[in-house]
Structure formats: structure tokens, C-alpha cells
Amino acid sequence: MQARISRRTALAAGALALGATTIPATATAASARYANPLVRQRADPHITRHTDGFYYYTATVPEYDRLILRRARTIGGLTDAEEVVLWRQHADGPMGAHIWAPELHHVDGRWYIYFAAGDAEDVWRIRMYVLENAAADPYTGEWVEKGQIVTPWDSFALDATTFVHGGTRYLAWAQQEPGIDSNSNLYLAPLTDPWTISGPPVRLSRPTYDWETRGHEVNEGPAVIQRNGRVFLSYSASATDANYCLGLLTASADADLMDPGAWAKSADPVFRSSAANSQYGPGHNSFTTAEDGRTDLLVYHARQYREIDGEPLLDPNRHTRVQALGWKPDGTPDFGVPVPDSR
């Protein structure tokens, strides 16, 4: 999601961690091909493969008013899978508008959905929230609101994701920090439970490069993959038009992840618009694995055209796409370029 648009326009409109398994550097895009777009008009896609053999899919809907879920035995099966509504926005107050970027995670035997939401009376008062379901099957049981994820600042916050490293569960997210003139930066903190951070967070990145500050100064949408002795955290940058792209932070698996100095930032975007393939604004990604259990997959959204009539956030055509994530000989991810549409 983009961190800020004009209030006038808004009112008018109304990382999954995949473990530390080493994947050979020879894994390439040729090893997994999917028909794209995978799901139309679904942005900020998150796909997780559970131990029950299902792929679970969540994403932002253009109406920004509900949380949806699909599941299928294959990635391709998500295209036509039944979509169910798990939760709807409140009629008033918190969690009453701008329902954004849901992620489904299974933690200690329970299901959790992380998402961002505004207030019905103040749609840009975006904060992070969590739902919990104790049932083994997330399509059953009751989704209980666990409330807001509280951080040191009561400010614009979104895009929470969680992962485990070295026996510690972490939360990564984007937030506007008072005193810093940017729309959102990236933060990390350990968790005491799935909705409570433990101790002060650290800032991992703020938008400073030209490609991070086009239209808006944005670092958001963190996603984590752990491979080859390193922790990789991808993120989205700039406005949600054709400038939207992915950056990458890298830390050694032996490092203290709470030390900002342990993270190296890519000087250039690792994934960006491709005019040759008619894919624009690729971003807000997640990671999963292919049906073979070995090939890593990049899940993201993008549009099929560059020019947008009006505010980008009001354009519904950010479609979910998926393609294989390659690996370079040095063990770092090779995002490649957004593949062309195949349907």
C-alpha cells in the first residue's frame, strides 16, 4: 500500500519466513511456470503453504472493506478457488476503513491474520491489527480480534509480517516515525506473543535512494526469506504507480538481526517495471515454494499498463502474479524481471 495520498481524494473515494534450507543456485525461472495473472484485482498478495498440503491465499480487495481467503492444492488452483470472506470492516471506529495487506500465518498451533486498517471516521489513521483463530482449519472456528499491534509511536503503521530466526519470532513492519520526513520506514522487533512486540524496535531502512522516493518516500511491505546462510528482507518503495519496485536488505544468519548495522541495503531496485513485458509497478511481494517443494516462488502484484487515470490507489487493476525466484552463484536471490501475461 502507498503510505499517503491526499485526504480530499481519499474521502471522495470512500514475509514469510520459509526456513533456512539451502536451495541450489541453479534453481531458475525455467523450473516453475504459472499462468499470469494468477488472480485479477487482488493486490498485496500473500501465499503460504501449510502442512495440510494447501496453499492459502490472502490479498487486498479493491473495495478495501474485507478480509478474504482462498486455498488450493496447487498454485494454479488458486485462480478458480472459492473465495470466502472471513471478516468485514467495522461500521464505525477503528478497523472501519482501508482494510489493507492481510497476511495469514500459523503460529504455535493457531492461525493469525495481520492486516492494516483505518478508522471509519478518519480513514488515514492506519494502524496494524491481528485476528486469531484456534481452529485447525481456518475456514472454521471463530476469528477473534486481538486488537492493535502497539508500537512506541501512535502513527501511520502497516504491512506487518512475522518470521522466526534463531529461535526468536520477529515482527517486521512499516511505519511513519515522528521526526523523520518520510511516509514510512521499515522496523523490526521480537514478539512476546503474535500481537505484542517485546522491547523497542529498530529501524532497518528509510527511503533515501532516488528509486525509493519517486512520488512518495516509501519503504513498506517487508517479506522475509532465509537461504544460504543469510536472511533476505525484500520491501516495496516509491508510489504505487509504475514507480513501485522492490528493494532488498541482507543480513548474515549469524548476525544480531536487531543490529541495524548487520543489514546491507541494495543500491538499486531488485525488481521493477518492465515495459518490454507490459508489467508496471511490481511490488508488495511474498515468498512461497512450488509444488516440487524446492523451487522458491515470488508472489507480487503489478498492473498491465503504465498510465493511470487519477489516483493510483483508486485503480483496481493490481493483479496477483507469481513466478520462480532464481538464485545467483553467490547465493543471493535473482528476482529477474516481471514475466509477461500468459492469459
Automatic annotation (TrEMBL):
Keyword Hydrolase: yes
PROSITE patterns: TAT
Segment forming the signal sequence: 1-29
Hydrolase among keywords: yes
Keywords of this entry: Glycosidase, Hydrolase, Signal
SUPFAM superfamilies referenced in this protein's UniProt entry, alphabetically: Arabinanase/levansucrase/invertase
Pfam families xrefs: Glyco_hydro_43 (PF04616)
Superkingdom, taxonomy of origin: Bacteria
Region spans: Disordered: 324-343
Similarity field: Belongs to the glycosyl hydrolase 43 family.
PANTHER family registered for this protein in UniProt: GLYCOSYL HYDROLASE, HYDROLASE, FAMILY 43, PUTATIVE (AFU_ORTHOLOGUE AFUA_3G01660)-RELATED
UniProt-recorded name of the protein: Family 43 glycosylhydrolase
Organism placement in taxonomy: Bacteria, Bacillati, Actinomycetota, Actinomycetes, Pseudonocardiales
